Amino acid sequence: MSLPPDYHMHTPLCRHASGEPADYARRAVELGFTEIGFSDHSPMPRDDFDEWRMFNSQLDEYVEKVRRAQREFPQLTIRLAMEVDYLPGHEDWIRDLAARHPWDYFIGSVHYVSETWAIDDPSKLSEWKHRDAFEVWSVYFDWLTRAAESGLFDIIGHADLPKKFGHRPTKDCTPLYERFLTAAKKHNCAIELNTAGLRKDCKEIYPNRQILELAFAKGVPITFGSDAHKPEEVGMSFAEAIQLARSVGYKECWQLSKRQRQSIIF
Ligand code: ZN
Ligand code: FE
Ligand code: FE
Ligand code: ZN
User: Fold this and answer.
1) 127 lies in a domain?
2) How many whole angstroms from 159 Cα to the centroid of ligand 4?
3) CA spacing 20 to 30 A to 123: which of 3, 34, 112, 193?
4) Is the pLDDT of residue 16 over 80?
């Protein structure tokens, strides 16, 4: 029984995180982790798509930063990964990214529910006033299902992100969850327990307990991630996440290397 790997952390290249990978690694060692993974926001085909990710030309620099941390902390297993935005139509781009480096895993995340609106972007918060929560949830879970079906991802990130600012539909979302998780199981994709939700208005781990219970019933694997955007956030609230995972029945999570999966006890 040991701490599961923290597979979700960022670097300053995304322009809204601080601390070098070595600082995150140092913190992880202090906390007793034996394995972590960097999963910074992937570049888009157009660098002006938004302002919260690395530029296309910085991909090699990103890999080098992670490699440097690996050399500096040989006692810690450090995986090389990315958090890749899924939008329908971006499949070829994502395949190209996958071929550019020997990634350990890709986290597929839906932040956008249209080409222009990222639901978790604080600067676009007012957009929620014009939207019906259930409609947003419906599009979000449709795209999340397509992300799982694409076969491009090992892990699906923060699987109920639309709750971030506290917007929640009153209608029953069970059919949306069911459809997504069926796709995740069929296409052998894990979901992550992402503790960043506890630090947001929703005050809850992503995804919620209902989704996790359905995921466990279907045999969908899990990983853990702090979604750290600064070194102090590494491993944050992992005790809570582990407790939640155990309480729905999980005893194992995935360990990923060169996109190969292995179950480990946590
Ligand atoms: Zn971020
Ligand atoms: Fe994200
Ligand atoms: Fe993230
Ligand atoms: Zn994230």
Assistant:
1) yes
2) 10
3) 193
4) yes
Total domains present in the chain? 1
Does the pLDDT of residue 103 top 60, yes or no?
yes
The dihedral region occupied by 44, where left means phi > 0, alpha psi between -120 and 50, and beta the remainder, is beta
- Residue list, CB under 5 A from ion ligand 4: 227
**What whole-number distance in Å separates Cα of residue 235 and Cα of residue 220?**
22
* 1: in domain: no
Both tokens assigned to 7: 């597979």
Q: Which domain holds residue 231?
A: 12-265
What's the predicted TM-score (pTM) here? 0.98
| Nearest ligand, CA 9 | 3
Residues 6+ apart with CB under 8 A from 44: 50, 53, 56, 85, 93
- Rounded distance from Cα 154 to ligand 3 centre (Å): 15
Q: Return d(Cα 107, Cα 233) in angstroms, integer.
A: 19
